[in-house]
Write a structure and sequence with these properties.
- The chain is α/β, with parallel strands linked by helices and 335 residues long.
- It has 2 domains: 7-69; 71-335, Rossmann fold (3-Layer(aba) Sandwich).
- It contains 10 helices and 13 strands.
- The protein has helices at 14-26, 42-47, 77-82, 89-94, 111-118, 130-144, 150-153, 163-168, 234-243, 257-276; strands spanning 7-9, 52-56, 59-64, 67-69, 101-104, 122-127, 156-160, 188-189, 192-193, 213-216, 281-287, 300-303, 307-313.
- A hairpin with a 3-residue loop joins β12 and β13 (307-313).
- The chain starts with 6 loop residues before the first strand and ends in a 22-residue tail after the last strand.
Length: 335
């Protein structure tokens, strides 16, 4: 797992930077804090192209490749204000009108989870990389101070966990023993820890409650042609640089592209099949023309211009499984 080389602090942010170093260390990610405050501008970023973290008055940033980024939840407000269940395919797929408990197993920058919580769902954001967990935790703390986002934050929590491992172990609540480390006042669940604002209260995000929906948005679906690479926005390039690291066994010299593809495919299939046993519906976001996750045919689809949402239902957990309302998004039909 690639890690930033160090953490920098701007003037006045040294104390917060030390706290982030302690949090990261508790998550198994030890980063040195560089002595003395720095002044971060475009020139400084160009002169420091390696992955690093920056702490300033605006919070925690991931920097490198001549740029920096952080989850900009306030920047999502224009989209959130326009969002309804009818005009957001993700909301329709997850049935947010029923205010379900959703586990987002691939949180990333948290934008999709934020949208779902904005529309009334209760959302657990799960992320495996300790640096991204801290970026999300900082985004949650910043959003709690925003008058338009504070209420939404009461329905959000951040968890440090590898969802693939948690699903295989059958962990979707704290009835199973977790192995994570708390990064805030915490209640143990989903093989990780809750950092929601209501972690120690009678919250709707009670860790004893199983999710109605599991949402997955794999960042790097294996391409049909391994030589082709998807183009990504500049904001996401840093996240890709941090997360796009194959397992050592998969990247060994004797493992060719076809073998790596097969290994990734088998992992996807196991991940999806286990998730399907833990919730009434699993929703998978994919590029419009990408292969199915694990090459498993979905039960239902919602198609957009650039992406689609594949649904896998579990009839044994009938609540929030397939309903007549889902028929508005039949497989192969545009919404």
């Amino acid at each position: 797992m690639p890690l930033p080389q160090c953490l920098y602090a701007t003037s006045g942010a040294e104390s917060a930077a030390r706290q982030w170093c302690e949090q990261l260390d508790s998550l198994g990610c030890t980063l040195p804090l560089r002595d003395g405050p720095v002044s971060v501008d475009a020139r400084w970023l160009r002169q420091h192209p390696k992955l690093s973290l920056i702490c300033d008055e605006q919070g925690l940033w991931l920097s490198g490749l001549g740029m920096r980024m952080q989850p900009d939840w306030a920047g999502e407000l224009p989209r959130l204000r326009r969002a309804t269940q009818k005009n957001e395919l993700l909301a329709r797929a997850c049935q947010v009108e029923q205010k379900p408990l959703i586990v987002d197993g691939t949180a990333g920058l948290g934008h999709d989870g934020l949208l779902l919580a904005w529309l009334g769902a209760r959302v657990r954001l799960i992320e495996r990389h300790p640096v991204v967990v801290c970026l999300l935790s900082d985004a949650l703390q910043q959003a709690m101070k925003h008058p338009e986002l504070a209420g939404t934050c009461q329905r959000l929590s951040v968890t440090w966990s590898d969802s693939a491992e948690a699903f295989v172990a059958g962990c979707v609540n704290d009835s199973a023993t977790g192995t994570g480390t708390a990064i805030g006042s915490a209640t143990d669940f989903v093989n990780g820890f809750d950092t929601s604002p209501q972690a120690n209260s009678d919250s709707e995000l009670s860790p004893q409650v199983d999710p109605a929906v599991i949402y997955l948005d794999p960042m790097f679906p294996p391409p049909a042609n391994p030589r082709k690479k998807a183009q990504v926005k500049k904001q996401m390039q840093l996240l890709h640089a941090l997360l796009d690291s194959p397992d050592a066994a998969d990247s060994a010299p004797h493992v060719n592209a076809e073998m790596r593809y097969t290994v990734a495919l088998n992992k996807e299939r196991e991940w999806l099949l286990k998730a399907r046993t833990l919730a009434a519906r699993v929703i998978v976001k994919r590029p419009r023309h990408a292969p199915y996750l694990g090459e498993l045919l979905p039960d239902h689809q919602w198609l957009g211009d650039a992406c689609r949402f594949d649904a896998y239902f579990n009839s044994a957990r009938h609540v929030h499984a397939h309903t007549p309302a889902d028929d508005e998004g039949q497989r192969g039909d545009s919404p």
